[in-house]
Specification:
Layout lengths: L1 H25 L38 E6 L7 E4 L5 E4 L3 E4 L5 H12 L8 E7 L4 E6 L5 E4 L6 H7 L12 E5 L2 E5 L1 H5 L3 H6 L8 E4 L1
Parallel strand pairs: 6-10
Antiparallel strand pairs: 1-2, 1-5, 3-4, 6-7, 8-9, 8-10
């Protein structure tokens, strides 16, 4: 009897635990929230060489690519390349001089030529690719290469297009090679606001090469 008295409390304890086990068996373990990594969006670096062309000042040259829009006339609208002789070919008006003209002036000439076939045509000329004018940046810059000279640009800004100077670049003696000339540009002094260095920050010309040692 004494033994039964000792065992009885353990039996009651076991029975009391059954609902807890049963409840644990019915309910699945709590779901751990799945951490989803936010996808990284690949960004394309801005192409700083794709500069807009001023239609009133830019002078068209050989190998440039032009888009000629004749409004309400899809048969005349087209993209053409300027030939090495400086001319383009258009339906009806055949060959037309483009080299040395601004896009605005060329559009006016095309309009005048088309006026004998169409009444008051509307013409727009856009330079979609500059191939006739360029400059080069080479040496200890972060992005060596050749850029179209679509708009006027100075030495300092051209170096910026090239990603800036590398760590061990010679900031004091940067050269601009222009034909037989060697022009100097002191990048460090320019940043300090030095007047002489500001004068050295010249406008680039077609064919110039900036050399950073």
């Amino acid at each position: 009897m004494a033994t039964a008295t000792k065992i009885f409390p353990f039996v009651l304890l076991g029975l009391a635990a059954i609902p807890v086990w049963a409840q644990a068996g019915k309910n699945p373990p709590p779901t751990i929230p799945q951490v989803v990594e936010t996808p990284r969006v690949a960004t394309t670096p801005t192409d700083t060489s794709a500069q807009p062309v001023n239609p009133t000042t830019y002078l068209i040259g050989p190998e440039d690519v032009l888009h000629i829009e004749v409004f309400r006339d899809p048969d005349m609208t087209r993209t053409v390349g300027v030939r090495p002789d400086g001319k383009i070919t258009m339906p009806l008006i055949k060959d037309l001089q483009a080299e040395g003209l601004t896009p605005e002036r060329l559009g006016a000439q095309i309009k005048e030529a088309l006026s004998q076939f169409n009444r008051d045509p509307e013409v727009g000329v856009t330079v979609v690719q500059v191939n006739s004018k360029s400059f080069t940046v080479t040496g200890k810059v972060n992005k060596v290469g050749r850029w179209p000279l679509a708009t006027p640009i100075r030495v300092f800004d051209a170096i910026g297009l090239a990603g800036g100077l590398q760590e061990w670049a010679n900031e004091k003696h940067i050269q601009i090679i222009r034909g037989g000339e060697r022009l100097e540009f002191n990048y460090r002094n320019y940043l300090k606001g030095n007047k002489e260095a500001k004068d050295q920050n010249v406008w680039l010309q077609n064919g110039d090469t900036i050399v950073v040692k």
